[in-house]
Design a protein that fits this description.
Blueprint lengths: L1 E6 L7 H12 L5 E6 L22 H10 L2 E7 L7 H9 L2 H4 L3 E7 L6 H10 L7 E2 L4 E3 L18 H33 L13
Parallel strand pairs: 1-2, 1-3, 3-4, 4-5, 4-6
């Protein structure tokens, strides 16, 4: 199984990327793990036309290959003004069900303060209608992110109770995602082997 982690901050050296690197380090049960930082890739602002994805300067085709090959996704977004990252929303608009339908997705919100719930709610409500990604019931909100999930340079340093707690919660969420990945891999194979008659007419959800 292959896991794709996408961090969607518009800043380099971001806390979202820090969280992504931590998740990649501790995740178990996947044959390969790929991390994409969207701010370091060139994606056009999608205009609704398929031709816009083929811009020679765009990294879309390479990213789409990773999406197509992935068995599970982790989508990480900072919270800005209560919203998910525009980079992430643009990417999800470009995704089609042909490449990502019925793939389990763990949502992660990263925030410097104590909120972080709004991006999760926004994405669960609006982001997966037509691409048919499947968000697992569990999600993660990494609050006060500058203070946790940092590299322990001092061997004598001990984790704070809150840091230890979120690391344990992350372990649970990754464990859940792994099992969703196995289950939905079987589902996708079954849907390919036994397609619904005329299912091409139902690419868009109601």
């Amino acid at each position: 199984m292959k896991l794709l982690i996408i961090s969607a901050s518009q800043r380099t050296e971001s806390q979202s990327a820090k969280v992504a690197n931590y998740l990649a380090e501790v995740t178990q049960g996947f044959e390969s793990i790929t991390h994409i930082e969207l701010c370091k890739r060139n994606l056009p602002l999608w205009d609704g036309e398929e031709s816009s994805k083929d811009d020679p300067s765009s990294d879309w085709l390479a990213i789409n290959d990773e999406l197509h090959n992935a068995d599970a996704l982790i989508l990480i977004t900072p919270e800005w003004s209560g919203m998910a990252s525009p980079l992430l929303k643009n990417l999800l608009l470009m995704c089609t069900s042909e490449d990502v339908a019925h793939k389990p997705t763990l949502l992660v919100s990263v925030v410097s303060g104590i909120n972080g719930a709004y991006p999760i709610a926004e994405l669960k409500m609006n982001a997966f209608k037509n691409n048919k990604l499947v968000t697992i019931p569990d999600h993660l909100i990494i609050r006060n992110v500058e203070e946790i999930l940092n590299i322990q340079t001092d061997n004598s340093a001990t984790l704070t109770p809150r840091d230890n707690s979120i690391r344990q919660r992350i372990g649970y969420s990754l464990h859940t995602l792994k099992h969703y990945s196995k289950a939905l891999q079987t589902l996708r194979k079954a849907l390919i082997a036994q397609p619904f008659p005329g299912q091409e007419n139902y690419n868009y959800a109601m």
